[in-house]
Amino acid sequence: MSNSLRGVYFMLLATFLFALMTVFVKLVPNIPVLEIIFFRAVFSIVVCLYSLIRARVPVFGNNKPILVLRGLAGVMALSLNYYLIQEVPLAAASTLTYLAPIFTTVLGIFFVKEKISPLQFAFFALSFSGILVIQGFDNRISLFHLLVGISTSMLMGLAYNCVRKLSTTEHPVVIMFYFPLLCLPVTGFWIIFNWTMPEGREWLYLAMVSLTSQVAQYYLTRAYQISEIASVSIVSYTSIIYTIVLGLIIFGESFNSMTYLGMALVIAGVAANVLWKSRSRKVYTAA
Predict the structure, then answer these.
(1) CB neighbours (10 Å) of residue 2?
(2) pTM of this prediction?
(3) Which residues are CB-neighbours of 21 under 8 A, at least 6 positions away?
(4) Which H or E run contains 192?
(5) Residue 253: how many CB atoms within 10 A of its CB?
(6) How many CB atoms lie within 10 A of CB 113?
(7) Domains held by the chain: number
């Protein structure tokens, strides 16, 4: 099997596991978002520390300011994302954060001196129009939810650009380590005064949030390591199919035709931007 095909399989598995993670988050509506993130961070910091010590890699890295910025952006993005998952249908929550690649490109102008063509702004407008259609034709999604989704995407874009800037100076696990390192003190202090005791199956669901997200992150990283970014990025948009099906089966969620149209517009704009960037890189390389 070629690396390209393996990368596609890895991305399909990663997106499915991330979709499962959203299901488990939604199955604990009585557990505060920061408490869910605390449990995930505990699991993550153990795995990261074990990996770094085993590989004999310095734990705290080199470019600490950017590592801290990446960690803080990740914590805030995840908090808003989990809030959306608990508040709106799964597929809608997923789509509202699909603008992350767009904000990654825009913020890349300042972080990695990335150039944007006028056509890409048309793709961005297409995706934004899809978000507005979703919000306008689904009364379960308020303007506040829309703003939370856009804010989540902006923070994800900031975190991704930090990763891009750190990719030449830091070990990948060091970059991942700064999320739980910054997350645990904040969420730990918060839950001291706002602890909600999980009951029965909620313990299992919280464990599965941590497990599915950690394994998904591994396969996501492997997919990007062995395949072209454009090919596996397109595959990642299958997550919308997973969340629609899982939301329908588990939570009885459904949408009207205009909401589906909005989702399609968002994905079309983001996918077109990814393909355009891939084509531009190939032309540049050939020249």
Answers:
(1) 9
(2) 0.84
(3) 208, 209, 212, 213, 216
(4) helix 172-194
(5) 18
(6) 7
(7) 1
Separation of CA 32 from chain center: 19
Query: Among residues 94, 106, 116, which one has the least CA distance to residue 160?
Result: 106
CB 7, CB 226: distance < 8 Å = yes
What is the 3-state secondary structure of 213-267?
Answer: HHHHHHHHHHHHHHCCHHHHHHHHHHHHHHHHHHHHHHHCCCCCHHHHHHHHHHH
If we measure between CA atoms, which residue out of 13, 26, 14 comes closest to residue 246?
26
Q: Which domain holds residue 253?
A: 3-286
pLDDT in tens, the chain (287 residues): 666 678 778 888 988 999 999 999 999 999 999 999 999 999 889 988 998 999 888 888 888 999 999 889 989 999 999 999 999 998 888 888 877 777 877 787 777 676 777 888 888 888 889 888 888 888 888 889 999 999 998 998 888 788 778 877 888 888 888 989 999 998 999 998 889 999 999 999 999 998 998 888 888 777 766 666 556 666 777 788 889 899 999 999 888 899 899 889 988 888 887 777 767 655 444 44
**What is the C-alpha separation between 148 and 155, in angstroms, rounded?**
11
